Amino acid sequence: MKQLVRFQRLENTSLKRGVNESPTSPPTQNRFIVGFDLTTKGTAIMLRKLTSTSSSWATVPLRLALGISFIGHGAQKVLGSFGGPGFSKFTSFPAPFPFMRPASLWMGAAAFAELIGGVLVLLGLFTRLGAFLIVCVMVTAIFGVLWPKFFAPEGMELAVAFLGIALALLIVGGGQASVDRLIGGNR
Q1: What gap in Å lies between CA 174 and CA 186, rounded to an integer?
Q2: Rounded CA separation 54/87 (Å)
Q3: pTM for the complete prediction?
Q4: CB 129 within 8 A of CB 112
C-alpha cells in the first residue's frame, strides 16, 4: 500500500530548536516534521469500498450459514476441534497443485483463510475480505481436490454451494445486522 509522506515546515521557533540547543540560541534552519498520514484520501476510499454494503436482510442467513460452517471447518484444521486433524497434521498434507510449494505454507494459509474468513463473514466485519478468502479456498478445493466428482460424499456439490454464497457476499457485502453497516453508517 502506498503511504503518503507529508513534510511540514515548522513555524514555531521553539519547536525548531535542536535537542541540545538553549532557548536563547538561534533556531535551527530548515527543520521539518516528517509524518505518515494513515488516513489519506486513498485509504479512506478503500475502507469505504471494503465496508460498503446493501440494506438487504437477505445476506444475514447467508452470512450465518457460511460463517458458522467455515468457523467449524477452520477450527478443525487450525485448532484440532470437532475431531479435526489440527494444524501440524493438516499442514503436513500435500498441496492440491504441484506449483504450491512449500506445501505446508499453502495448507496453513488455507486453514487460516477458512477460520478467519468464517469469523469475518459471521460478524459482517470486512465481509468482502472474508468472502474473498473463502472463494480462494473453494476454487482451490473444487479444481485441485474434488474435480471431476460432483455428488457427495467426495464430490464438489457442497463446495460449489459455498462458493456461490461467498460470491454473493463478495458482490453485495454484509447487508443488515453487520459490523460493516455500523462502520459505514446508513448508506
Answers
A1: 13
A2: 36
A3: 0.74
A4: no
Do residues 51 and 184 lie in contact, with contact meaning Cβ atoms separated by under 8 Å? Answer: yes
- Find out whether the peptide bond into 102 is cis, omega within 30 degrees of 0: yes
- The whole-angstrom separation of Cα 131 and Cα 117 is 6
Percent of the chain at pLDDT > 90 equals: 61
Backbone φ and ψ of 114, nearest 5° = -65, -45
The pLDDT value recorded for residue 103 is 94
Q: Are 74 and 111 spatial neighbours (Cβ–Cβ below 8 Å)?
A: yes
Q: In the predicted model, what is the mean pLDDT of residues 149-160? A: 90
CB neighbours of residue 61 within 10 Å: 11
Query: Is the pLDDT at 181 greater than 80, yes or no?
Result: yes
Amino acid code (one letter) for 31: R
Question: How many angstroms separate the CA atoms of 67 and 91, rounded?
Answer: 22
Residue with cell 530548536: 17
